[in-house]
Amino acid sequence: MRTSTYLTTLLTLLVLLTDPISAFAATLENIQVGTTTRTMIAYAPAKITPKRPLLISMHGMNQDAAYQQGQAKWELVADTANFVVVYPNGISNSWDISGTRDIDFVLTIIDTMANRYDIDRNRVYLSGFSMGGMFTYHAMNRIADKIAAFGPVSGYPLGGANYTSSRPVPIIHVHGDADDVVTYTNLPNYIQGWVTRNNCPTTPVITKPYPSHLPNSVATKTYWGPGDAGVEVVLMTIGGKGHWHSMDPASILTSVEIWNFCKKFALDLSEPVVSFSKPVGETSYVVMGADPQAAIESLTFEVRATDPDGHIDSVVFFNGNTLLYKTATAPYTFRWENVPAGNHQIRAMAIDNEGKTGSATVTVKVEAPQTAHTFSQAFTAAGTLPAGWMTYDGAETRTGFQSGLSSGCRVFQLTGNPRDFNFGLYVRNTSGEPKAGRAILGGTTSTGYVMVNPGIYTLKVSCANWNMPTGGNVTCQVRSLPADSTMASLTFLPTSNIGNTMSNPFSGSSQQTLWFQVTQPTRLSIHLYTQDTPWADFVLGSLILTKETENALTESRAQFATTYGQAQSALSAASDPMYAGAQYSALSALITEYKQWQSDNISAYETAISRLKTATNDLMEHKAAIDAT
Questions:
Q1: What is the mean pLDDT of the chain?
Q2: Domain count, the chain
Q3: β-bridge pairing 149-153 and 124-129
Q4: Residues whose CB falls within 8 Å of the CB of residue 174, separated by 6 or more in sequence, listed in order
């Protein structure tokens, strides 16, 4: 029966693949998601019956729903198997693969299709191509309680692995081994993480060629299973295939394979459903100068827990396998005191009145550097936006973590020789409006927290311009939260320009320093802005926060006193009228300005020292030139 269905679908596809006009109309419709109007294409067979499955198919970056419909051709399978298909449209032709914007979109689609076609909520499946595949993996970790099985194609997270689904999840991944956009190289290791998460047998069953009745097929099927709850993991590798769907009758038909896999799985909605409402995803903390054994005074966790056929008896919180807290009272919250540094897997397990359990896990990463922390060490993969960062370019807001980015604000990998840094965060201003080109670390809506204890700090920043031969200013600010007040600010002109090509050599990117002081534990955000002109830009290569020694202010005052004395000596040495001129007048004015001057701001001392040194050097060069005549 399966072979007959496969051949029928194959023959239909052969006809359609030779027809340049799609057999299915791409009728776009609006759908309201909260206060935002989104769009999608929905398709149901003419004789659809109640309680049939739903498959949601996500397009790739810079593509749209109609394009995905034309490539995946899910209608052909849906007409045979009698299920509903939806192709959503991403905002700016992309997906939110770190937050909840498009997760909410998918959940609204499910509710809408349930109202319209009375779909079977136990059999909702999610698939996506390229960035849509990346979103499919994101959804595994967010809404595994809503999606029965997942079918990513040619896409997986490029900037880091995360296996925190609330339950074991069935996965079929289809990918060409010649893909030069989302490369195949690291995919097997990533898939292995899900094999481990699902507790599948570690030794796979490999079928090559696949299907075995097609001896010339270039496909290989690697199967792990069954794992916990009977789930399976399948990797379909297409030999010689690039960044594209496989619609090769001599090999495999991607949509047919995904359907034949997914249709075997359904949710058991009799188990408790658990999700974290605080925090809503992976969260990181950098707490400067804290005791590693108690880096954070307290963190609060809150979960939602429901039971479809009964009630919740209790919710238990674990850090790994260590019991932290148990509560029977909703809302289910836990306040963790004296949180130590480390990577913590916080798991909330709900137990219902029948003893059935459901769980959700969130990662909390806590670092407690004593002297310095390099934020730019997160710039490790091209086309990503690291967690904790937000960018805006005048048209699009991006929130990390994101991967698979091929345009706009993102991490660049620079390969020129020489070069000042290997990776850098590119930020642009497409409109020229004030602060329209910006990058923010640790903002109020960020999942990355930067916290400092009392002390004196420096923030060292190194940037290059990307495509500004005459240069473009960069402004860096340190702000305190939640007041959002500026603690330190510096505008500077980068001393290098990369030249709009990643393989160009560049060197001489100077390091700028901001000083600031805090007297109580403070949460910070770090802001960087392009200048306010169209297509202004910068590439951030280094960002280092350092806690200075307690006597840093005393040292700055001593250095200022020395520099001031040297300036006085220079002025005295050039007191003869023959040395009179602009240089003498400039230094004389500074000496008068800084007479009996004092500050509690280290940055002010740095500025004063720099001004005095520049004026002193100018006068000495002027004197030397006159002496030489």
A1: 89
A2: 4
A3: parallel
A4: 151, 152, 153, 154, 236, 238, 245, 246, 252, 254, 257, 258
Q: Residue 87 pLDDT more than 80?
A: yes
Where in the sequence is the domain holding 319, given as residue range(s)? Answer: 273-364
Q: Rounded to an integer, what distance in angstroms lies between the CA atom of residue 204 and that of residue 473?
A: 55
Q: Is 277 part of any domain? A: yes
The answer to whether residues 357 and 379 belong to one domain is no
Number of residues that make up the chain:
629
The conformational region for residue 588 under phi > 0 = left, psi -120 to 50 = alpha, else beta, is alpha
* Percent of the chain topping pLDDT 90: 67
Domain presence at residue 531: yes
Overall average pLDDT of the 551-574 stretch: 88
pTM greater than 0.85:
no
Question: Does residue 623 share a domain with residue 575?
Answer: yes
Q: What is the pLDDT of residues 211-242, one digit of tens each?
A: 988 888 999 999 998 888 889 999 999 999 99
C-alpha distance from residue 617 to each of 12, 272, 611 (Å): 82, 74, 10
| 91 phi and psi angles, rounded to 5 deg | -70, 130
User: Strand runs (DSSP E) across 509-584, as ranges?
Assistant: 511-518, 522-530, 536-547
In terms of Cα–Cα distance, which of 297, 304, 299 is closest to 283?
299
CATH number of the domain residue 417 falls in: 2.60.120.260
Q: Is the pLDDT of residue 550 over 80?
A: no
Q: Both 350 and 463 in a single domain?
A: no
Indicate the residue type of 57. Answer: S
Q: Whose CA is closest to 221, among 185, 260, 263?
A: 260
